[in-house]
Design brief:
The protein is of the alpha+beta class. 55% of the residues lie in helices and 16% in strands. Strands 1, 2, 3, 4, 5 and 6 form a 6-stranded antiparallel β-sheet that branches.
Amino acid sequence: MKRQFRNLLYGDIELLGLSVSDFTFSEAMSGVSPVYIITHLPSQLTFRFRNHSENPDSFDCFFERYSPGYPTPVSVGPVPPENYWKFEEAEREFMEWLETDVKAYLNDSLMPDLWGLLEEQKRASTSPRSIDTSLFSEAERDQLRVSLDTFHLLIVERFHPTEVQEEAISEQLNYLKRAVDRLNKFDWKSVAMSSLISISVALCLDTNSGRKLYGLFQQAMSAVVPLCQHA
């Protein structure tokens, strides 16, 4: 592929606000025709430009769709007029792939896995040794409130919430502070897990970041040994 075309594709990735370092460019052969493969590394989706065997300015293209849940991505190859496109026409297909498939993957990966978090909550709450229906002592209630304040500070330090996100976080943590006066330990832990999911949604955390949030919660709660020793 002409360097002029390669550079235009590089610019297209930047133009759409994507990180060029997340992509690789490689070459192969398909019979007598050169093939140029751009791979998006995080998703492993590929876009292939194939040159006409006798014309370096003519291309057809094949690309993989973002289709989670399928064994392999669906490969699609639009049929251009007279079987091959000018580069500008193939480039439009490439930009549409970036917008439709690569960005769909990135947006999806930023969403929290609410079902996964719910299953973690269920496993924690149904473990026989974790069921403690006793009430908190006065000392435990005081320590919990202090620990929730610590958790709040850890969230701000780690995730830098916006003003709107900060309001949502404060609402959840203040509710948990009030709940220690009326809920037993088992019920409070269940409510706390639901609040963690709500905070994760407010912060737009992905699955890995959601686990880090839970780790911060465990860190902040570690002083309340009767509550957190089986968390």
